[in-house]
């Protein structure tokens, strides 16, 4: 697999199952890159939606992507704690300077006290019908929601305070 250089800037491109672009984050600093994992950091990065609307992220974030998992994790570092936004989506590929994945609508929002909420189930069911998500994708996504919930409850990986501290400190070194 093509691997970005640590310290380089990449785009993050989210697609829908039908191949249409969903959302693009203009710039994320690569903090770690292996054959299986990319960890990145960004702050106040421009984001472009599929309809052309743009906005800018409000806080520093550490992004975790894995080539074998059907979810990715964005840890948003705010004054009152770390909030997580977890996208259920395909494992990533890195192609032409961009990390790319398919967004499958379901999201899990995790609060600083590690309570969480599953979001967008209606959107998922609607898009599953419209775009014809195969049953195998439905099964994979449901299993990965279960895995994600286990990670949250166990404070595994990006959900551990140490993980965020280490990678946010690394991100800050690139800013100085």
UniProtKB/TrEMBL annotation:
The coiled-coil regions, if any, are none
Where do the annotations place Mg(2+) 2 binding? 105, 107, 120, 123
Reported EC number(s) for this entry are 3.6.1.15, 3.6.1.6
List the catalysed reactions: a ribonucleoside 5'-diphosphate + H2O = a ribonucleoside 5'-phosphate + phosphate + H(+); a ribonucleoside 5'-triphosphate + H2O = a ribonucleoside 5'-diphosphate + phosphate + H(+)
The record's active-site residues are 23 (proton donor)
Q: Where is the DUF402 domain?
A: 18-156
One Gene Ontology MF term: magnesium ion binding
**A Pfam cross-reference name:** DUF402
Tell me the superkingdom of the source. Bacteria
Keyword field contains Secreted: no
Which EC class heads this enzyme's classification? hydrolase
HAMAP family per record: Ntdp (MF_01568)
State the taxonomy lineage: Bacteria, Bacillati, Bacillota, Bacilli, Bacillales
Which family is annotated? Belongs to the Ntdp family.
Cofactor (UniProt): Mg(2+)
Residues where Mg(2+) 1 binds: 87, 103, 107
**Organism encoding this protein:** Siminovitchia acidinfaciens
Q: What is this protein called?
A: Nucleoside triphosphate/diphosphate phosphatase
Keywords annotated in UniProt: Hydrolase, Magnesium, Metal-binding
The task this protein performs is described as: Has nucleoside phosphatase activity towards nucleoside triphosphates and nucleoside diphosphates.
Alphabetized InterPro entries for the sequence: DUF402, FomD-like_sf, Ntdp-like, SA1684
